[in-house]
Design goal:
Helix content is 48%, strand content 10%. The chain is α/β, with parallel strands linked by helices. Among the domains are: 216 residues, 3-Layer(aba) Sandwich (Rossmann fold); 56 residues; 89 residues, Arc Repressor Mutant, subunit A. α7 packs across α10.
């Protein structure tokens, strides 16, 4: 066993823990299909959101962890339930009235409100594949429409006919009495209207593989369950898909947890082996509400990537998957800086520490070096005072701080500088509130100005931070964070900020003196 595999077998990182549990599934015998199958599901009722990405990213992390420890090949399927009937119109798409005219049609039969694809389902599937491809995921895409219509699901659907009573027993036990009266695991697709019907079955013929039902007008129909004439309700569909594809692992949100026994039970009734699964906590928007595809609340993939590189989002997804996390714009700077901290640490770690480092799982063990000699948080504050409109506007300061750095040698820093300028302009500048200092604060800031103007000591972060710290102590600030808070509010228009010594080192002592002069004269308050 290699050192890496040995370290992985002992690692407490959650992807390795999940992968080790999955290995036990085949400790006696390799899978007959020749590979271990990971699956993620997607409901294309709305545009893909960050939660969808997180599911694929985290599943990929477990897949890669499994591959470190096992020689069994793996595959990942992204399955889109696009036969699902459109039950409500998403709030964040155009042509709302047009869409309302196509309620209950399968999503791949609803016209695309953007006018770009064959259907709304096709559009959302394309968006899913686009952002998965952006992140370089290795996956196979399956559309439920094709899965049902092509016959790939037929054997399982015929078995569902044969074992209809057992499936219904599982489902009815989970339903209220009123719902039990009309429930069927089969949802016929009306031969004339094309709508997905939620109607009870009059008969299920296991021999012929047919169902009989009345539509909403009372007209009786008999349809084969094969060939895309019928779909399964979403809970039975979950378990049936596991059985049909022989899925070994699937994760899903905590809101599915209570349904796990249902999914597992139906999978087993249909001759499958229930997969390993993992429930993750949900993502919340800035108000603490669950992120929803139909509402379009919370961050989108494109919004995150407007302000930070893809790896920072993967880092955010890695952190504590079983803890609910708020996803708003203010989580981006911290994710960027923590990601690069972990990159720098990785290069100094032994293999036991490396397999527990988030960047090992983000990069599948092929971890790059960080060239971020300036933190993203510092770049944001530099953007605040430099008046830069692009990355080039920050490089003059960066070069003084780190003479050996350049856009060519530090491409991650160059990209981050551009992101920082954009983030500052869009998210920080509109919210800045400058204030004038109090009498005590003014005296301390004037003292700081005088020391900076006369400064002939080292211009590194620590030396300057020590000097700033000494000014605060000399003027009696207790606690000292009140001193730094005053500096941020008076000079930067925010209640928190970077290590101020690092800011001075990057921006320059002379430039900081000029900034103080403007602040004390009231120019920053006037500017807003």
């Amino acid at each position: 066993m290699t050192a890496l595999r040995d370290a992985a077998m002992k690692s407490k990182a959650w992807p390795f823990e999940e992968a080790r549990a999955l290995m036990k599934r085949y400790e006696k015998k390799d899978p007959e299909k020749g590979f271990v199958l990971f699956e993620t599901g997607y409901g294309p009722s709305g545009l893909p959101h960050i939660g969808t990405f997180g599911e694929v990213a985290r599943t990929t992390m477990i897949r890669r962890a499994f591959e470190v420890m096992s020689d069994i090949p793996t595959r990942l399927i992204c399955f889109s339930d696009d036969v699902d009937g459109m039950r409500k119109v998403p709030e964040n798409v155009p042509q709302q009235e047009m869409l309302r005219q196509h309620m209950q049609l399968p999503l791949t039969s609803v016209p695309d409100p953007y006018g770009e694809y064959e259907s709304f389902g096709h559009h959302n599937n394309a968006m899913l594949r686009r952002f998965l491809d952006t992140f370089g995921f290795q996956y196979e895409f399956i559309s439920a429409t094709e899965f049902y219509k092509s016959g790939q699901f037929d054997a399982t659907l015929l078995l569902a006919c044969e074992r209809y009573d057992k499936i219904m027993a599982i489902m009815l036990a989970s339903l209220r009495e009123e719902r039990q009266q009309t429930y069927s695991c089969f949802l016929p697709i009306h031969p004339e209207t094309g709508r997905v019907l939620y109607v009870p079955m009059k008969n299920v013929d296991a021999v012929r593989g047919e169902i009989t039902f009345d539509d909403e007008t009372g007209r009786e129909w008999t349809l084969p369950v094969t060939g895309g004439n019928v779909k399964l309700q979403w809970k039975p569909d979950f378990g049936a898909r596991w059985a049909a594809l022989d899925v070994d692992f699937e994760m899903y949100g905590k809101d599915h947890s209570t349904n796990t026994p249902i999914y597992d039970g139906i999978c087993e009734v249909l001759g499958g082996r229930r997969p390993n699964h993992m429930a993750y906590e949900l993502f919340l928007d800035e108000t603490g509400q669950k992120i929803s595809k139909s509402k379009g609340n919370g961050l989108t993939i494109d919004e995150w990537l407007s302000y930070a590189a893809t790896e920072s989002l993967s880092y955010f997804m890695y952190q504590k998957p079983k803890t609910a996390k708020r996803m708003h714009f203010d989580v981006i700077p911290r994710a960027v800086d923590e990601y690069h901290q972990q990159l720098r640490a990785y290069a100094t770690q032994d293999v036991e520490a490396q397999v527990n480092n988030p960047v090992f799982h983000i990069h599948g063990g092929q971890v790059p070096a960080s060239h971020m000699v300036v933190t993203f948080g510092m770049l944001l504050n530099l953007a605040s005072v430099a008046g830069a409109v692009d990355a080039a506007g920050l490089w003059g300061f960066i070069k003084k701080y780190a003479p050996d750095a350049s856009p060519e040698k530090n491409p991650d820093l160059d990209a981050a500088a551009g992101f920082a300028v954009r983030y500052f302009a869009d998210k920080i500048a509109p919210t800045r509130v400058f204030r004038l200092p109090s009498k005590v604060e003014r005296a301390a800031i004037e003292d700081l100005r005088a020391r900076l103007k006369a400064w002939d000591g080292p211009t590194d972060d620590e030396s300057l931070q020590t000097m700033v710290f000494a000014v605060g102590k000399a003027h009696g600030f207790e606690p000292l964070r009140d001193w730094f808070k005053a500096l941020y509010e008076v000079l930067l228009g925010a209640s928190d900020g970077p290590r101020f010594g690092g800011f001075v080192a990057l921006y320059g002592a002379t430039e900081t003196v000029a900034l103080i002069d403007r602040a004390l004269a009231g120019a920053l308050v006037a500017k807003g």
